[in-house]
Amino acid sequence: MSLPDAFLSCRPTSSPAMPDVTVTRRLQFNAAHRVHNPALSDEENERLFGRCNNPNWHGHNYTLDVSVRGPIEARTGYVFDLGALKKIVTERVLDRVDHRNFNLDVDFMHGVIPTSENIIVAIWRELAPAVAPARLARLVLWETPNNYVEYTGE
Q1: Burial code of 129-142, b = ≥16 C-beta within 10 A, e = fewer?
Q2: Is 62 within 8 Å of 28 (Cβ atoms)?
Q3: Sign of the C-alpha dihedral computed for residues 125, 126, 132 and 135 taken in this order
Q4: Where are the domains of the chain?
Q5: CA–CA distances in Å: residue 109 to residues 31, 59, 116, 122
Q6: Which pLDDT band, with edges at 50, 70 and 90, does 7 fall under?
Q7: In CATH, what number does 3-151 get?
Q8: What's the mean pLDDT in 29-42?
Q9: Which of 99, 110, 117, 150 is catalytic?
Q10: Exactly one of 33, 36, 60, 143 is catalytic; which is it?
Q11: Is 46 in the active site?
């Protein structure tokens, strides 16, 4: 039996430790925001943030990659059930941000400048406790097809 076949076979729970593997689920959502620091003047905000500081908001079609890492579970062959991961991300994040305004509607973003950098850290805080015993390994948030941020919890 080849090495991959050995990992896919049913193993007793007393088998040697399984390797750690990272699995990723990609999800999409739409949201609006205004990148604005209320401590700065309107002129300074406009200079720093340009079109992203539009007082009438602007929106993005975001893509979120959620990566979870852990050992392959001997009974299922999964690190984490990707259907369950989708449900967790949907309940803890997407239902709260999709077709919403980060500045006005998203409780975990109140008082935070909604840059992609701050959004991804806030999403991490929402998801990390929910994926145990696996661990959140990496988030990638695509704001446009050309711009993304990634965060590994550090």
Answers
A1: eebeebebbbbbbb
A2: yes
A3: negative
A4: 3-151
A5: 13, 16, 11, 7
A6: very low
A7: 3.30.479.10
A8: 97
A9: 99
A10: 143
A11: no
Cα–Cα dist 21/124, whole Å:
19
Burial of residue 41, with CB atoms counted within 10 A of its CB: 0-12 exposed, 13-18 middle, 19 or more buried: exposed
Residue 106 confidence (pLDDT) above 90: yes
Residues linked to residue 141 through DSSP beta bridges, in sequence order: 64, 149
Would the pLDDT of 59 be above 60?
yes
Model confidence at 86: pLDDT above 50: yes
For residue 143, indicate whether it is catalytic: yes
pLDDT band at 15 (very low <50, low <70, confident <90, very high): low
Number of C-beta neighbours around residue 113 at 10 A: 19
Residue located via tokens 């579970």: 73
CA 100, 127, 97: angle at the middle one, nearest 5?
Answer: 5
36 given a catalytic annotation: no
